[in-house]
Amino acid sequence: MITRRNLMKALGVLPAASYLTTSTRAFAEAATPRLPKRLLGRTGRWVTPLALGGQASLQWTAPGIDAPDIIVRAVQLGINYLDSANIYGPSQVNYGEAFRRLHLVPGQADYNAPLRESLWINSKTWEKYAVGPSTNLAQTPGATAVSDLKRTLTQMFGDGKGYIPDGAYIDAIQMHNVQTLDMVEQIYTGMAERGSKMPERIGAFPALLDYRDGTNYTGLNPEGKKYIRHVGITGHMDSPVLMEALRRDTGNNLDTLLVALNANDKLYTSHEYNVLQLAAGRGMGVIAMKLFADGSFYGKTPRFSRAVEDVIYSVGKPEKANYEDLVRYSLSIPGVSCAVTGIGHIDRDKPANCQLVSNLAAATQDMASEAERRRLEREMAQRYGATTNYFQLEQKGLIQPSTVKVEKVPGSEQVAVRWNTAIAAGRPIASYEIASNGKTLLSVPYRPQMTPDLFWASVPSSAVGSSTVTVTAREA
What is the 3-state secondary structure of the chain? Predict the structure, then answer.
């Protein structure tokens, strides 16, 4: 097992700027212990438990900080999941500079193809349409999901002005921050029409599939480019909305889910007990974010970061929650493949003062047991209450199924009872109980609702008669 001590020792001998020559790159790789990896769901790819986020100093860079060197350092350390987004300001440009230093630009004489193939490079588009009104006018007026994809590629691998070198691709693009049912409808617009006459507006999802498969069903990929390998989705706020987005994916084309998962999750409408269950059941790769509640666990005002002043540069803070526990908490949640954190500060001379090294060391330790997770949840609730996860839907308690239907089964003495999923609160759902005439007729163990089709079970007609049938979710 990799221990914090031997990891720190090995990381401490990595030379600065080891990306400059082949010999120093080889030395750095030999000095770094082999990191554990986890399967990223049905993508079939193996990723390090800690992923590099595209915000913090990659988006808001203070004077004196070499933002691209944070990325270089992450790759040196063996981290292979690299994340960014089109709405993260200069983040993708910083990746572009880092990739030039690391020889990751295809077509160049020194292109390091094996290193590129070992990395999972991910970006995101806020735009919900590929043809239609821009949904983020403040960031890039007139932008679409397709123009965001091309912007990612030119900034990361090209000249930042539109040129994309042959052979450039990203491993995934995620439809970013889907938080309303209207947004779900927008991204799916035109999905059913793929292969036939497309509607006037086209959602992000069908267009991105064209750029995954090299097809041109939407008419937006006439050159048959294959710029991406996978498509995913992200969300901070609304688990029921994300569940609807996943259920509508009847073709199993959503391969990854990036979602907020930290020790205060259950004080809000829980992602762990709702959308995570569905994503894991569908075999998706799940990436946890907001491990530190966007810095709220360490004193930052509970709101989305927006300036250099919001970036935290220390490794945890005295008298606050233990950062190692918070990393281990999120990574120990069943179904989580890796966890992404933004980095404010690295220190090549003193690894113990480096956020990247410290978080990586925590991510490679034994994961928290269920008892430890419960302890940390109690601790964080006592410290903060429901004041940290401003990005998450407020706790509404257990929400029972909103739809219950009873239908006679032709040629049978049974009736079919159909219902939609309940929404869990601070505890997982254990079962659904079907009752009539004051009696429980059947208890059905909980499982995620995988598709828009309702759950169903049959009970004897004689036990129901003309009485009302209820379906009640029971917590564990």
Answer: CCCHHHHHHHHHCCCCCCCCCHHHHHHHHHHCCCCCCEECHHHCCEECCEEECCCHHHCCCCCCCCHHHHHHHHHHHCCCEEECCCCCCCHHHHHHHHHHHCCCCCCCCCCCHHHHHHCEEEEEECCCEEECCCCCCCCCCCCCHHHHHHHHHHHHHCCCCCCCCCCCCEEEEEECCCCCHHHHHHHHCCCCCCCCCCCCCEEHHHHHHHHHHCCCCCCCCCCCCCCEEEEEEEECCCHHHHHHHHHCCCCCCEEEEEEECCCCHHHECCCCCCHHHHHHHCCCEEEEECCCHHHHHHCCCCCCCCCHHHCCCCCCCCCCCCHHHHHHHHHHCCCEEEEEECCCCCCCCCHHHCHHHHHHHHHCCCCCCHHHHHHHHHHHHHHHCCCCCCCCCECCCCECCCCEEEEECCCCCEEEEEECCCECCCCCEEEEEEEECCEEEEEEECCCCCCCCCEEEEEEHHHHCCCCEEEEEEEC
What pLDDT, in 10s, does the model give residues 80-139? Answer: 999 999 999 999 999 999 999 999 999 999 999 999 999 999 999 999 999 998 877 666
- pTM confidence score: 0.93
Going along the chain from its start, the domains and CATH numbers come out as: 4-384 (3.20.20.100), 404-475 (2.60.40)
Task: Convert the pLDDT of each residue in 175-226 to its tens digit.
Answer: 999 999 999 999 999 999 999 999 999 999 999 999 999 999 999 999 999 9
**What confidence tens digit (pLDDT) does each residue in 407-433 have?**
999 989 999 999 999 999 999 999 999
